[in-house]
Amino acid sequence: MAGITLKEIENSLSKKRFQFAIKRFFDVIISLILLIVLSPLFLILAIWIKIDSEGEAIFRQTRIGLGGKPFTIYKFRTMVKNADKLFNKKVEKENLKNFVFQDKDDPRITRSGKFLRKTSLDELPQLINILKGDMSLIGPRPEIPDIVNLYSDYERIRLLVKPGVSGLAQVNGRGDLDVGQTIEYDVNYVMNFSLWLDFKIFLKTFKVVFMREGAY
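^ that's the sequence the OP posted. Answer follows.
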């Protein structure tokens, strides 16, 4: 961070209030339109998930958002019921940067879940998070509390803007990235935030999703 404090970065972002207001306007409009247009798809996917495996169609989990505030994220369930109890990886300060959540052959992922992850359709319920104001279309990915509790001041830069459904890390590796690489991309995004950068990430997201890059 080369001597720059979190407060100084926060003050720099506050000078971009107008851009953040425009960003919020488009977040609400786009997510509302998509929720209406895609509502039949939501129903079809929910039914498929319920038929495919036991459990609720919607997965809920606590994530950390703007300013370190926790919120409940929504996703279509892609794993077996109580998959979190089968998660054996332990994250510690020493292995934080090299930690990788996703395995290419995770046995907990259901048949429908594999398709949903490959196509990123599992992320669609996060449109609700956007309308609620928890998230944005573009931003750092919202992390789980166990990871955030280990953050240094540098890593906490991620928390200075709302988390996003897509972001700089998502269009540059997604599941292929470890936590350290993801943090670097997200910090870079925060430090260089602009509507133009959001627009470029938004367009690149379609390519990444279409090519199914880094999705497991």
